[in-house]
Here is the input.
Amino acid sequence: MEPHSDKFKIRLGLFIFGGILLLVITIFIIGRQENLFNPVFTIRTDFNNVSGLQVGNTVRFSGIDVGTVDNIRILNDTTVRVDMLIEKEVQRFIKIDSEASIGSEGIIGDRIIIISQGSPSEASVRDGYQLVSNEPVEMDAIIESVGVTAGYAEVIADQMSEIMIKINSGQGALGQLLQDSAFAKNLNQTMVNLKNSSKGLEQNMEAAKSNILLRGFFKKKERQEERKRKEAEKAAEKENQSKQDSTESR
Here is the structure.
């Protein structure tokens, strides 16, 4: 049996070293995810439906990953208890009135537990404390609601289409008004008559002003308007002066 060469021994040593290094890195990553190397404490909450939450999923507080889901168990036919391992250093920030809800990583990502911020004046949670929970909204219910809304929108669009078709074809009172050429001519003539009437009214007013019997009335009215205008100008000047005096006194 031939002894192994030095090159073979070196390769074997490097292979063993690499395997040990990979094992250490793997243990470190898993331990970090499971909070094996950090001091932790436990809190729990109850849900009627965990909506796909699994052991090992992330627990998030203020947008930061602070722990993991440690255990999920069914207590009865309506209650599921979720135990969470949370980093000890964030215990003082989680208050007794904080609430736990189930969210997701993005739109279709893994389910996570989100702990809301409580009142600063409240006490911090203790080890084993049970938080109040908010039930998650099921994606199936959202899709069903969107489907119902889309159905209503389709019905409304069909009805609007039928109404526009009837109007364009001259059916109904509105359609007859829009399609009737005689009505359009009468409307144009009415507008012309109103314009002519306004011009005639202006001419009559000018004639009345030049009338000897009514001239005094219009002059009196003009003097009253002029007096009101001057009084308003004086009041404005007085107000501006008072503001300037107040500013200078400061």
Remarks:
- Residues 39-137 form one domain.
- The chain has five helices and seven strands.
- The mean pLDDT is 78.
